Amino acid sequence: MFVHFGDDMKRLTIPIFIILILGISLFPNLASAQPNEMPEWVSRIIQHWSNGNIDDAEFFYAMDFLANNNIITKSSFKNQLVKIQKISDTEHTLVHAKNYRVFVDSFPKDLDLYYSIIDDAILFWGKNNVNFILVDDQHMANAKIFWIKEMDGPNDGYVVQRDRIEIGLGTSTDGKWHEYDKKSISFLLKHELGHFLGCPHSTDPQNIMYPKYNEYTKYDHLPVC
Predict the structure, then answer these.
(1) Domain ranges within the chain, ordered by starting residue
(2) Class of domain 99-196
(3) Distance between CA atoms of 82 and 142, rounded to whole angstroms?
(4) Nearest of 164, 165, 170 to residue 185 by alpha carbon
(5) Cα 138 to the center of its chain, rounded Å
(6) Within 10 Å of residue 144's Cβ, how many Cβ atoms?
(7) Which of 19, 73, 76, 178 has a CB 3.0–4.6 Å from the CB of 38, allowing a cystine?
(8) pLDDT tens across the length of the chain (225 residues)
(9) Is the pTM value of this prediction over 0.85?
(10) Dihedral sign for Cα atoms in the order 119, 125, 126, 131
């Protein structure tokens, strides 16, 4: 699978489905995928997606369909995405995007806990019309999340090199390591995703971009980025 998403998003629109069927029908000689080759009609679909004409959920589900039917390979798909990513890096097109592909590094011990933290962050930013879609391969991602047992610096979260997000999981200020609770880590992830989106710190204590965490605060004021 290229992407994780809920059942309500697992559907192709008619235009995308027609394109796939026509492509397979009109180019039967390309029905067997080659390791580093991408059919021209598939490349056009990818270009439409990169221009914002196809939403991420439809696009990645379509690419997954093509891979499962051996029309494309993951290697050819990755190569095409790398080309597009280089162009977007140059043009800095991600600043105004509303859909982002996110890779999450291997979870620590409690999988259910961290899945719920990720889901919570996605739902939170969805209220602000930002869609984060989880992908399995970091080469496909606009943002990459990594869990750090304990940060070396004064902060518990950082955005590094524009697309790498590091989240601290605990502290040992008293000489013994203590893991942060779910609410603390959830705050850190939402907060750093805000910085990834270009949101500055807020002076509103109930805003997720407020620079200091308080366990008694709901942080239900949406930021303006």
Answers:
(1) 3-91, 99-196
(2) alpha beta
(3) 11
(4) 170
(5) 9
(6) 20
(7) 76
(8) 233 333 333 344 445 555 555 555 555 544 444 555 667 777 777 766 666 667 666 777 777 777 777 777 767 766 666 555 544 443 333 444 578 999 999 887 777 888 899 999 999 998 888 999 998 888 889 999 999 999 988 889 999 988 999 999 999 988 899 999 999 999 999 999 999 999 989 889 999 999 999 999 988 887 877
(9) no
(10) negative
Q: What stretch of H or E contains 4?
A: strand 3-4
Question: What does the block give as tokens for 213?
Answer: 């965490």
Bridge-partner residues for 159, per DSSP?
A: 165
Residue type, 52: G
Identity of residue 170: G
Determine the Cα–Cα distance for residues 190 and 74; give it in Å rounded to an integer.
30
